[in-house]
Amino acid sequence: MANLRTRLFGVEMPSPFVLASGPLSYGAEGIWAAYRAGAGGVTTKTLRLEPAINPTPHIVVPRSSNLRATLFNSEKWADLPWTQWVESELPALKNHPGILIVSLGHTAAEAQVIAGPVVETQVVDAIECVAYRRDALPSLVRAVRDRTDLPILAKLTFNWGDELYETAQAALDAGANGYTAIDSIGPTLEIDVNTGQPRIGGAGNRAWMSGAAIRPVAQAVVAELVSRFNVPVIGTGGIFSAEDAVEMTMVGAAAVSVCTAPLLRGLAWFGKSSERLNRWLDERGYADLAEVRGIALSRLHTADGTTPLTFDFEPTLCTLCRLCIIVCAYAARQIEGEKPRDSELKQILDTERCRSCGLCVEVCKPAALRYGNWPREQR
Ligand SMILES: Cc1cc2nc3c(=O)[nH]c(=O)nc-3n(C[C@H](O)[C@H](O)[C@H](O)COP(=O)(O)O)c2cc1C
Fold first, then answer.
1. Are 211 and 70 in contact (CB under 8 A)?
2. Which residue from 102, 259, 269 has its CB within 8 A of the most atoms of ligand 1, so it is best to mutate?
3. What's the sign of the alpha-carbon dihedral 46, 267, 91, 97?
4. pLDDT at 119
5. Full-prediction pTM beyond 0.90?
6. Share of the chain above pLDDT 90, in %
7. What's the confidence (pLDDT) of residue 375?
8. C-alpha closest to that of 257 among 288, 281, 234, 232
9. How far apart are CA 244 and CA 238, in angstroms?
10. CB 77 less than 6 A from any atom of ligand 1
């Protein structure tokens, strides 16, 4: 059995899966349920001075079946008062397993009131600072740092575009020790095609996207953060499977956090994902996640490769589905022959027309068509 134990800021977690700030971490009851289900850590719903009153409805599944593992939400921060968190929710989490991170937002003025009492509960392992406005994050981190030596995570959002990296540096300068990346992305807008009405409540019916659709963005941000800054990053955004967690770890994530997957699949997701991750590592002979952590970073290309692709074709695997021909924007492909999986089948490529985009290989399910000169171990 591979070892899934993961250390974050010196705290040992039974698994690398942290429940991210969201509906499931609404209070102590939900947080205990997550720990019992196998979460290696939990981040609370975001504490602010005023409890949230949420619009209704505030979570929708997109209509498009291509986005079924994605959510749009217009949910605000914690709807329990911060005083209740300090007086009863956090004390009820004494002796929790793994890591407990308190999410605190969104301004320095709020942190000046809330951070001290949160730290005094003595059950918290780290504070996560989250701000909607980019310029509010460094002062928020500073206000928390003035009140505690606990590790501070700065939560980053790609809604700030590439400027998020300047903000990340500013957060470190203000006293942060690591990052959670990324928050949900938006705004988005969904319309009910039967009624013409917006599908979600909230100001302007605007919502924020989480889940599968944002994972590649999250991963690019994590890779960039790990390359630029030598601090732990909790990779967050769209992780649904063990392989997703491995990918995020391969670009250097110290741990991963998840909100949409356990929300849609139930808390049992944590136990199942740990089992699958264990099996994935075992099957490939890895002893633990540390062995895969960051291995993709040295393979990230700094310059464009422009060598024309060559292709290998195995006719006995070709089902004659002709997808390689259908998706070729440049009409560069043909197949000679009539019988599927016939050793006489021939792929004909017009190398003058081919732009080496690679889409024909990507859509070939039986892998009859492969790259000849794209290093396989990098795929
Ligand atoms: C319904 C919902 C509520 C959320 N509430 C918060 C919140 O209060 N504070 C916060 O920092 N992030 C919040 N998030 C963002 C998540 O913590 C996470 O960063 C984001 O959803 C990406 O991860 P995922 O794709 O695994 O869901 C919320 C996400 C969802 C879907």
1. yes
2. 259
3. negative
4. 98
5. yes
6. 93
7. 65
8. 234
9. 8
10. yes
